[in-house]
Amino acid sequence: MNLWLKRDDLLHPQVSGNKFRKLKYPLQALAGQQVHLVSMGGLWSNHLHALAHAAAIAGFPATALVRAAEGMNSAMLDDCRALGMQIRFVSREAYRALRDDTEAWRQHLPDSSAQHVWLPEGGSAATALHGVAELVSELEFTPDLMVMACGTGATMAGVLAGLRGQGRVIGVAAFKNADYLHAEVARLLTAAGYPTHQNYQLLTTFHHGGYAKVSAELSAFCENFFEDTGILLEPVYTGKMLFALRQLWLSGQIAPESKVVAVHTGGLQGLRGYGKTP
To answer: Which parts form a coiled-coil structure per UniProt (predicted)?
Structure first.
């Protein structure tokens, strides 16, 4: 296997990785408008962290609906507040409703108006795929295989769009019970105006216990990878993806002559949630 690592963690010092790409076109479309951005995420959300920085740079006020109990905190939320983002806490039940109902966010904003613009969880709007698709055009060759972590499925959908049916894609789900992502990838591709490409495989058994769960084996892998390469990994997404890729290689599921591009999607600020400094 000939392996390249696409270092999207280096795209921007704060708005890193796939979040930079996902926010690019949705925010460009709002340039010059007087809008207030609203989105959702957890205590260590890479999306909210990136959005807070991007909103501050673009001059947009922003509010985050955070899945946590009132009074809970994290270094990520401290960053968001310092950048001017308003924080509102929602229960787990209310958070699930935000996923199911595209208008449910309004009940958490007493002053909701037409000026408020909703950005879905993870920044995974259909227009986000156009920014992710540009990742492929930056490569100097068309790989046989591209591999990336999957949260909402938008990054994989964007890469599929960029490849235009060429090569093969493997997405490594970062959480349990991720089979529904097949439907989500198809929905996003259609909504963004792309064909529903099928040249991909979704791996659902490398979650190491669930979302944000880290096994001792995964933790050791991330530490060894850094010692060997000098490249930091966070264990929630990219660490699980590279761990899975290594297992596929060792089990002979990747041809020796294959040109493989693995995508480092950033999110290193989340390391602070594990007591580590990025």
So the answer is: none
- Which two tokens mark 75? 């270094």
For residue 179, the domain's CATH number is 3.40.50.1100
Domains of the chain: total: 2
Residue 206 near residue 242, CB atoms below 8 Å: no
Neighbours of 139 (CB within 10 A): 15
Q: What is the mean pLDDT of residues 138-148?
A: 97
Report the percent of the chain where pLDDT is more than 70: 100
* pLDDT for 162 beyond 90: yes
Angstrom distance (rounded) from CA 153 to CA 220: 27
Alpha-carbon gap, residue 14 to 20, rounded angstroms: 9
Q: Please give the helix or strand (H or E) that residue 51 lies within, else none.
A: helix 46-58
Cβ(184)–Cβ(152) under 8 Å? yes
Q: State yes or no: pLDDT of 61 exceeds 90.
A: yes
Range of the domain at 150: 2-13+129-274
Identity of residue 86:
Q
Q: Give counts: helices (H), strands (E), the chain.
A: 9, 9
Of 123, 145, 176, which marks where a domain is finished? 123
CA 246: distance to chain centroid?
21
**Looking up tokens 């594990």, which residue turns up?**
274
Q: Which of 76, 27, 256, 241 is nearest to 151 (CA)?
A: 241
Q: What is the pLDDT of residues 240-252, one digit of tens each?
A: 999 999 999 999 9
- Write down the mean pLDDT value for the chain: 96
Kindly report the number of other CB atoms within 10 A of residue 1's CB atom.
14
